[in-house]
Predict the structure.
Amino acid sequence: MAELSADRTSGSGTKETDRSERPAPRKPGNRYVENVRKHWMLYVMILPGILFYIIFKYIPLAGSVIAFQNFQIFNGIFGSPWVGLDNFKFIFTYDDFYNVLRNTALIALYQLVFGFPAPIILALLFNEVRLMLAKRTLQSLFYLPHFLSWVVVGGVVFELLSNQGFVNAIREWFGYGPILYMQESRFFRTIVVISAIWKEVGWGTIIYLAAISSIDPSQYEAAVVDGANKWKQVIYITLPALFPTILILFLLNIGNFLELGFDQMFNLLTPMTYSVGDIIETYVYRAGVLQGQYSVTTAIGVFQSVIGFTLLWIFNRLARKSEQGLW
Amino acid sequence: MKKFVHKRAMLLMMSGLLLAAGCSGNSGGGSGTSGGEGGETEGLTKIQVFKSHMGVGSIPDSSNPHVQYVAEHTGVEYELITPPPGSEPAEYINMMIASDDLPDIMRPIGGVEQTLIQQGGALPLDDLLPEHAPNVWNSIPEEAWDIVRSSSEDGKIYYVPKVFLIPERSPLIRQDWVEAVGHDMPETVDDYVELLKAFRDEDPNGNGKADELPTTGREFGRWMDHLFAIYGVAMWEGYPEWDVYDGEIQYAGITENMRAAIEFMRMLYEEKLLDNETFLNKGDVWQAKINNNLVGSWYHMPANVRDRLAAMRTQAPDAYIAAMPLPQAEGYEGFVTVKSMGEPEWMIPKAAEANAIASLKLLDFFYNPEHDEFGRYGIEGMHYEMGENGRKVILPPEDSRPLRLGMRNLTTAEDMELRIEETFPEEDWQMVKDMYEVVEQDAKRIAGDGLPASVYQGFPDIQSHKLFQETMTRIIIGERPIEAFDDYVAQWKASGGDTVTERVQEWYEKVK
């Protein structure tokens, strides 16, 4: 930033004379101070954001040390005994952990494969709606579920799939007996993925729609002159223009790979579907929040973060090879 | 970069922990005290009381006549803290602990009392109780205090136990339905199955639709203990308990009895005699099904059937509920599980030591026989009104009606009789009293009564009964074969069950 603006202000004239006319090379410290003074409003604007990250993200990070303790809540971090890697040993020798991990990874994978492209496709579809009123109305309708909590959506899902629910009413119409989908493990992951898409797909289109609207219309005009139909325009203009946005969102997503969101799973899960739907978050809730096993569950959280960070790092490197990464 | 390094839930928890660590230096109780220790006349001591499962109602403020009445008699003004109905009290209480915001006196939930005891967060009450709460000390039987002592390593009394000297829950059945289908009260399991089939096929609710659910339960297999009880499984609201099997105290969830009970329910489920939505029923759905005359046989508390009866009678004026004697299953000794003492009811956090005497004074008020009547009825116009025959009638709970604190949890047969007469209209007295008489025959106090939650230390999934619930529900709905039960038993033992069993057996040696 500093260098850029310095270059721009003194950009005229030849570079040689410019450099020789400078009285002395300024210390970087001075340059920053000057920059802050000049753009103080911008700095004030990012201050709350920075504070937010420090207070709610970085400081609590230090609390992760309890993963290496036998944390006793009445004695605090400083009074609890250290146990080294015992908690991690416990996790990795714990039978059920692999089941939980497998469920988490599988559902995460499905969410990525089916959930991630959904808003892109929907955004492309929205983009083709020419009637402004229809487009706006449709968009609003698709945003709406995002504002419902999972408690509500979970209730609706249970109701739709109950014995007297909508789906079974249709089955009955065709002469089939009812199926209680929510208690059959073979349907569970599908229900999870579909309900998540239903709830979040509209909201996810916002960024893509913004990116689409910034594409230069003359590109499309030129394509039409060259005889490209709608389909070809999407393939050769819209998608390539969206690619950087898609890539960045993908990277942000991959960092959260193992974080499926507690709310959804908690509201859909029953003991009948534990074997396919018990994920890290629901496990941590049961053991950590309900039974106060803070150390073990923190260790799981740390493990989860390490996986997320590793994935992010790998994919970021891959991304840098073709386009640009996050850093 | 976004929150890729950690997840929301953990963050919340950890910021809470940090706060706890940061503030652990402050030793005073959460509430401000306006008066001095001895200043009963000039000022009131404010005491925060945490109690869960209060039902609907508003939180009483300090101008509430109930609060003021108690304050007049004790010099202690209580401030009620309770989680909203339908929320998870264990979660609420753990959040209070994590944010170092403990009340002055609390009812522990979900084994949290052991966390307090083991980490030095609980105040020992051995010396305080006889002096400052004599009514509590004397009215609770010595046997119960012994169980309390057995739950801590140093043998001290860290909490006041709940004492329930009569069976509290019972298998219930629609007597009017039994008559409508021309059956007698079932004596054997076969009779019971025939009766359920008649409920299913013969339209006992008379609405012309085959919508009857012969018997039902709730999600996680809760509140269907009657079906387990037939086979002699110690069960408490759907959680397997500990009782003596083959001469040794064991987890009822892995016994042959449990296997037989599950097999029985699997048959009921297949025959649609057990509500096929049982394991999807939330509490309110379950209740609605019963209230709407859809259910013939279920499990609940006889003392609480009043509102249910009222709802049933709007459509079925002759609705009559009876307790069902447990049908005899060949080769099994059925019983209704009773836990009558030793469950923690009140404890005082160490951090609230400064207010401990006032807290005990408040507690003693409710255990004092002189205040029995006030404890039962509360304030006229707010909690009860005068009936026609000069009897006090307790008003039903409402969202806008202030809750009132009750702290006495000691129920004798005498108490129950009074309670029935207070809460039920006269014509129903006999019905409810009959229920208690019937269940008394089947009731058995289990060997694991009063077992401290500390035996589960390090095995959260054993404590949460997760393995059991998963296996039981999936076998019953027919997704797994009954043989899956044997794998589960092996897995339960290997994943910590054996260790827990050893601890329970050691504990049992101490209290037996």
Q: What stands out?
A: Chain B has two domains: 25-166+344-411, 170-339+433-511. The longest strand of chain B covers residues 45-50. Residues 1-41 of chain B have pLDDT under 50 and may be disordered. Chain B touches chain A through 58 residues (CB under 8 Å).
